Task: structure prediction
Amino acid sequence: SGEVRVNVVEWGSGFLMSVQDGASAGKTLPERVKIVEVGPRDGLQNEKTVVPSEVKIHLIDMLSEAGLSVIEATSFVSPKWVPQMADQVEVMMGIHRRPGVSYPVLTPNLKGFLAAVNAGAAEVAIFGAASELFSKKNINCSVDESLQRFEVVTKAAKEAGVPVRGYVSCVLGCPYEGKVSPDKVAQVAKRLYSMGCYEISLGDTIGVGTPGGMTEMLQAVSREVPVNALAVHCHDTYGQALANILIALQMGISVVDSSVAGLGGCPYAQGASGNVATEDVVYMLHGLGIQTGVDLPKLMDAGAFICRSLNKKTSSKVAQATCKL
Amino acid sequence: MGNFPTTVKHCLSYEELIQDYPWLARWLQEEKEMVPTGVKIQLIDMLSETGLPVIEATSFVSSKWVPQMADHTEVLQAIHRSSHVRYPVLTPNMHGFQDAVAAGATEVAVFGSASETFSRKNINCSIDESILRFEEVICTAKQRQIPVRGYVSCALGCPYEGPIESTKVAEVVKRLYELGCYEVSLGDTIGVGTPGSMAKMLHSVKKEVPSSALAVHCHDTYGQALANILTALQMGICTVDSSVAGLGGCPYAQGASGNVSTEDVLYMLHGMGIKTGVDLSKVIEAGDFICKALNRKTNSKVAQARGDYSVHCRMKKINT
Result:
């Protein structure tokens, strides 16, 4: 019947940590993981259908009710470039801000930052890249130039008392350059951290990473930035996201980015998946006995809602598996 | 031990779906269409060229129960048997075993369960009774020097009973191993397991049976398969079951996925520097073939991404 068995005959690198037997597999893992929900921004930004503001606002409100403590709400980037985020101000003003929940927004430059603060943003995020080519193609400047631009933002944010989160994209591979050096990732992460980012999210932008590359990269980065200031943002384009997240947890990472219903395809591989689904991440974490504060059924409701609005099937396997009775 | 989805209670309503089909869930059995024999043979032949060391070819179960496997003899006799590959077949009882041997089988497999309810509902007998049945097969196989592989289903959860005690899994695995199975594959039949429950289960099982005689058979119904496989690897397991293109849905959750795809497993293993001897691109080709033949999309994310990604890269080369 075609089922096959892969006999793994030899071990490769010695990085395969010998997790102590059984239940103590849990000993090396954090007790609590913070989930950064990027569906409303990263997710929707990469969906073809432009969604009305009320839908976005309702989605964010449902996610707030689901127990998520960080929900990336929108992006203060020019609507000319990202039409999906043109209603940035309306969304910021329209959402119900649940106490204890943070609603960061993207701010690629000082102009965006000022507009964000004006609209009531209390936390912002900036995006660097570990690949020169990717930086040039995406934001028309070198990595260095982009970091200089961001320094202007972080300075202003510091003065305004607004925390800044940094993202590094292409940490495990670049659609243009191919392999990316872990040291380059570490350098960029270090600079973002030194300029004042309280946390650096390491993004496997095209989802090509595996537990091997993830380990190597995290080893390099954690030499420059304390591990409790790091997060992973894994894409599931090659189905590797949960395995990569598990390895990251074993290495001390306790912040994971994900997107409800796995919203947000991969802009570099048409039809392929992108973001890892929050439902699937939460299912794994809870199965490991790790606390997240998230109410999975409520999260699935939010996922079902946005999928109906987008008229598309969920990319979350947990959501698919749950019988629709 | 972590969550257990409420969905499993709901899944009891899917009894009707499976009552005519004993669980011997090989991937083609979940495919609703009858696949022509020629297609099966071609698929197996393509897989034989990929470097895969073991390919489960068919099932010698009554065609009344599993019509999809009615052509078992024809398939076994027509495939080109590579000298580097083994072709085990399922044999639920002596009758099936004898047919299999007559058709030229050189390795067989038997299926037990860690859940009493599952055993009764699927093969109409208790775990104990099923093992007695297998004992006969294993004894006879031993005499003929035919290796027997054991499977234990519901190792991480049962659609009827919910969570399964890891000690119960260990007990069943131990019995199969002591009877003479050279290897026992631990099946997360409904894919509910997570690295937490996988670690706990393996911890119990490893007390009774050496890791070198264990394999994992993870389903990806809840997207947990690769993380579960990674956990198993970290605990010393080095045999992994998977299904090309991830074919074979879950009979217990309509529309949900089932088997983990071989392509995605290989991508992970190779990325970790683990040698498998398998050519991933050839597996992708075999997956493309069977998906076209079944007129459906692959469940493998690697296959989905590769197809589009290589096009994208070529386009980028032209533009820059």
Chain B touches chain A through 102 residues (CB under 8 Å). The longest strand of chain B covers residues 108-113. The CA atoms of residues 106 and 145 of chain B lie 9 Å apart. The longest helix of chain B spans residues 301-319.
